[in-house]
TrEMBL record:
Family in the record: Belongs to the FAD-binding monooxygenase family.
Highest taxon of the lineage: Eukaryota
Keyword check for Transcription: no
Assigned keywords, A-Z: FAD, Flavoprotein, Oxidoreductase
Tagged with keyword Flavoprotein: yes
Protein name: Uncharacterized protein
InterPro entries for this protein: FAD-bind_Monooxygenase_sf (IPR051209), FAD/NAD-bd_sf (IPR036188), Flavin_mOase-like (IPR020946)
Gene3D superfamilies xrefs: FAD/NAD(P)-binding domain
An example Gene Ontology molecular-function term: N,N-dimethylaniline monooxygenase activity
Length: 553
């Protein structure tokens, strides 16, 4: 028998008895900020949810996020390409062990086309404000059309912030920087028409982009001055056992064909590379043997690559623990710093003039171009007001008190609000993409709960957030990230609270978020009775005429 409505059975009229089968999902609208790796993954995973519509807002003209924006010379991923794919979408056709930025971007663009991202994304649209409306039980997002300057309001029950932490670049705060009369460029906004051949150039910074730009440009410029505020551990390639020729290792056509023709072999290879990436984690424990051995090995390697030059070794080999700042493979970087046309300068910059850079000791470097490889604003403070319950503005709270999230995915007073790569995500703990997938799964679990249990909103409690951060801060005392170094992990401080990495390994993170702790959240229902979701006393199979005994195994 198919029961179509409550008219087929007698009941009293009541505001808590509704004509829905138990766990019937209600329509939900989701707004997603960003069409990068996280946004594309959400589009894929959302296909498994009933009656969910979503809109992605992307400030750029295309998908890809950081990999669309990063176009500086030599840009590539220092993580093996086979670790930089979704777990469900291995790519047998990577041409190199460490793929170029262009190849990575094309991989994600192809998946975006397959997953319907383009059809569900508003490109050149930027979210400039978000406010929770109690009356509508939804987020009201102020969205700016960057092509016209017009603004409109978009309403959605769920807001997922997938903007990431590596998308808000900024010029360094150096007096006179914009008085410079030569070419001034940031690695995050590279001018592809810029020709530096035979020029005198300065590179400010010693992070990942500097380590790629310097060796790429060194041989073609007249002179290069590399300005270092602090040293960095420059190690061998991540999972380098899979790259016999280092950063330049390419996959042969025969290898790629085997990946394509033998999916199980390809999957086994990917698992081995993932193991290699994640096996580095024990070295992040400050007192571990792995840390001691790692320091010895990387120090020895850096000395050799610097030609055992005592001046360069003193300037460039850190005194702080391995991993205090991000350990970065630098193919050809240290070798480039030993060349005769390169000067390594560690004195702080005093100012920039119209023609060059002056350090605090009075040394003047006249240059034709300045490249700032100084990264991004990484304080996790939202770039626009996000106003939740009781008028609490997350932007103000995190700006004043520092970023404090619940397990990287949620924030107090922010109902139906979830994040990917939020504070204390495993951004330096091992393989990142599976962690992003787990964060999306976490959000989807709550979306499903809101849909089927007649919930108006869910919000993580202050108590749970405080408890997590108390545990996290105590745990971090034993990690190398708490060492005495200036790091974006600590919001650019030497001894601040660690807001960058997760307090544990990637596998630890995956297990920690595998089953959401629903008890850490408070709930508001759409009616006076939390059991209204039980509906009309029937199940979906009874309403839809499906077999009624399928629970028998």
């Amino acid at each position: 028998m198919i029961v179509k409505t409550t008219k087929d059975w007698p009941t009293q009229e009541s505001d808590i008895i509704v004509d829905r089968y138990v766990n019937q999902p209600r329509p939900i609208r989701v707004a997603v900020l960003g069409a990068g790796i996280s946004g594309i993954a959400f589009a894929y995973k959302a296909r498994g949810l009933e009656t969910v519509s979503f809109t992605i807002f992307e400030k750029n003209h295309d998908v890809g996020g950081t990999w669309l924006e990063s176009r500086y010379p030599g840009v590539s991923c220092d993580v093996p390409a086979h670790c930089y794919t979704y777990t469900w979408a291995g790519n047998p056709d990577w041409t190199r062990v460490y793929a170029s930025g262009q190849e990575i971007n094309e991989y994600y663009r192809s998946l975006a086309r397959e997953y319907g991202v383009y059809e569900n994304t508003k490109f050149r649209h930027k979210i400039v404000g978000a406010e929770w409306s109690a009356d509508e039980a939804a987020w009201r997002l102020s969205v700016e059309d960057l092509a016209t300057g017009d603004k409109h309001v978009h309403v959605a029950e769920i807001f997922i912030n997938s903007g990431g932490v590596l998308n808000n670049w900024a010029w360094p705060n150096i007096p006179g920087l914009h008085d410079f009369q030569g070419s001034l460029v940031h690695t995050a906004r590279w001018d592809e028409t810029l020709d530096l051949t035979g020029k005198r150039i300065a590179v400010i910074g010693s992070g990942a982009s500097a380590l790629q730009v310097v060796p790429t440009l060194q041989s073609s410029v007249s002179s290069l001055v590399s300005f270092h505020r602090s040293p960095a551990w420059v190690a061998a390639e991540f999972a380098g056992q899979f790259a016999s020729k280092g950063r330049d290792t390419e996959y042969t056509e025969e290898e790629r064909r085997r990946f394509r023709d033998d999916p199980e072999y390809h999957a086994r290879y990917r698992r081995e590379v993932e193991h290699g990436m994640n096996a580095r984690f024990p070295s992040f424990f400050r007192l571990s043997d792995a840390q001691t051995i790692g320091v010895q090995n990387v120090t020895k390697s850096m000395r050799a690559r610097l030609g055992n030059d005592p001046v360069l070794c003193e300037k460039l080999i850190p005194k702080f623990p391995l991993g205090c700042r991000r350990v970065t493979p630098g193919h050809g970087y240290l070798e480039a710093l030993t060349k005769s046309n390169v000067t390594v300068e560690t004195a702080p910059i005093a100012r920039v003039t119209g023609h060059g850079i002056e350090t605090v000791d009075g040394t003047m470097y006249e240059v034709d171009a300045i490249i700032t490889a100084t990264g991004y604003v990484t304080d996790f403070v939202p770039r626009f007001p996000i106003i939740g319950l009781g008028g609490v503005n997350l932007q103000d709270v995190w700006r004043d008190q520092g970023a404090r999230a619940y397990m990287s995915v949620a924030a107090p007073s922010m109902p139906n609000y979830f994040m990917t790569t939020g504070p204390n995500s495993p951004i330096s703990n091992g393989s990142l993409i599976p962690a992003i997938e787990r964060q999306i799964d976490f959000a989807l679990a709550f979306i499903r709960k809101i849909q089927v249990q007649d919930l108006q909103h869910v919000v993580v409690t202050d108590e749970a957030t405080d408890d997590f951060n108390t545990w996290k801060d105590e745990f971090m005392k034993g990690m190398t990230w708490s060492g005495s170094c200036n790091s974006w992990y600590k919001n650019g401080t030497t001894d601040g609270t660690i807001i960058g990495p997760w307090p544990g390994s990637v596998n630890h993170f995956l297990q920690s978020l595998k089953e959401p702790r629903f008890e850490d959240f408070s709930y508001k229902y759409n009616s006076r009775n939390r059991f209204r979701f039980l509906g009309n006393g029937l199940a979906e199979n009874e309403i839809k005429g499906w077999p009624l005994g399928e629970y028998i195994k």
